[in-house]
Design brief:
The structure is a single chain. By secondary structure, the chain is an alpha/beta fold. The chain is built from 15 helices and ten strands. It folds into two domains: 181 residues, NAD(P)-binding Rossmann-like Domain (Rossmann fold, 3-Layer(aba) Sandwich), CATH 3.40.50; 117 residues, N-(1-d-carboxylethyl)-l-norvaline Dehydrogenase, domain 2, CATH 1.10.1040.10. 51% of the residues lie in helices and 14% in strands. Helix 1 links the parallel strand 2 and strand 3. Helix 10 crosses helix 12. It binds nicotinamide-adenine-dinucleotide. Nicotinamide-adenine-dinucleotide (NAD) binds next to helix 4, strand 8 and helix 7.
């Protein structure tokens, strides 16, 4: 799939690929400079945008300054003059607080500004944010991302965008600076629904990769060789490529934290229930993620789901 505008028979499914070029510069207010937001903001600076960032962690703000951005003392300072506002926050209450809260984004953004929320949150919250933004004359998109820290650094994230088509078009320049595959998937909230499906698939993949690795280890197989050949066949996956070696070496530094994936499995399960859809494998892996969280592994990478599978087998 390629070409902004897409085929006429796929008008609601528009794909762009990042060609690295740009034509205009925007003033971007960026709130949430964490594992994902930090490198995304840095890539916007590299692409020539003026980025003014805000985070409640000072080292995160210092990193943006080192990357060529500017520091805002508050959300209000970050958004007041911004044409584009990006939020990259952990969870739904964070986005509600920062965007809808007193002295938040909507209280300070200028008319016609474009709000792009890249956080992974509940689809219903994204819809509510879009409605509240429209009342203030602010255009909004939900644009959650996939690809983790490596793709955030490379500027090649997969971005699933919900909102009006003309607003998506207006966000092209900025989204292309941080994304490799940027797809308009439908109206407000649709980006979050697709992201929930993404998290379902990733959790299931991680769980099965962990089981396969324990299985191979129990048989005394050379797991480096085993994963190499599995990666070249139908069992190959981005998860296997990104997490296989880390599981082999028991390296679980985040990356994407278990606590965030636990949050996302809650979103998937609620959204499935809302649609009357049953996700039995999703329910099982949700419980394993919940167990990892309950056992104190919330700050580890989601590949640490491996530890749950190992424990079930009396291994480590
Ligand atoms: P993170 O915790 O590293 O970053 C969030 C940042 O937001 C932190 O630096 C925090 O200090 C800041 N913050 C929180 N509340 C704030 C507030 N009120 N004002 C200012 N700053 C505030 O998390 P992350 O890993 O970057 O994830 C961000 C979002 O992206 C989450 O919704 C996550 O599910 C999603 N996501 C993460 C990954 C990943 O691999 N880490 C991948 C895809 C999507």
């Amino acid at each position: 799939m390629s070409g902004f505008g897409g085929d006429s028979d796929r008008s609601a499914l528009t794909t762009r690929h990042n060609h690295g070029g740009r034509t205009t510069m925007s003033k971007v207010g960026f709130i949430g400079l964490g594992i994902m937001g930090g490198p995304m903001a840095a890539n916007l600076v590299k692409a020539g945008h003026e980025v003014i960032g805000c985070d409640r962690s000072q080292p995160r703000v210092d990193q943006l300054l080192a990357d060529g951005g500017k520091a805002a003392a508050s959300v209000a300072d970050a958004v007041r003059d911004a044409e584009i506002i990006i939020t990259m926050l952990p969870d739904s209450p964070d986005v509600e607080g920062v965007v809808l809260g007193e002295d938040g984004v909507l209280a300070n953004a200028r008319q016609g500004a474009l709000l792009i929320d890249c956080s992974t949150i509940r689809p219903d919250v994204s819809r509510r944010v879009a409605e509240a933004a429209a009342e203030k004359g602010v255009r909004a998109l939900d644009a959650p991302v996939s690809g983790g820290e490596p793709k955030a650094i490379d500027g090649t994230l997969s971005i699933m965008v919900g909102g009006e088509a003309d607003v998506f078009a207006a966000a092209a320049e900025v989204l292309d600076a941080v994304g490799g595959t940027v797809v308009h998937v439908g109206p407000a909230g649709a980006g979050q629904t697709v992201k929930a499906a993404n998290q379902l698939i990733v959790a299931g993949n991680i769980g099965l990769l962990a089981e396969a690795l324990i299985f191979l280890e129990a048989h005394g197989v050379d797991t480096e060789a085993g994963l190499k050949v599995l990666g070249g066949g139908l069992a190959g996956s981005t998860v296997l490529d990104a997490k296989g070696e880390k599981m082999r070496n028991r390296e679980f530094a985040p990356g994407f934290r278990i606590e965030l994936h636990h949050k996302d499995m809650g979103i998937v399960q609620a959204a499935a229930r809302e649609a009357g859809v049953t996700i039995p494998l999703g329910a099982l892996v949700s419980q394993l993620v919940a167990a990892a969280q309950a056992q104190g592994d919330g700050k580890l990478d989601h590949s640490a789901l491996f530890k749950q599978i190992a424990q079930l087998n009396g291994r480590d």
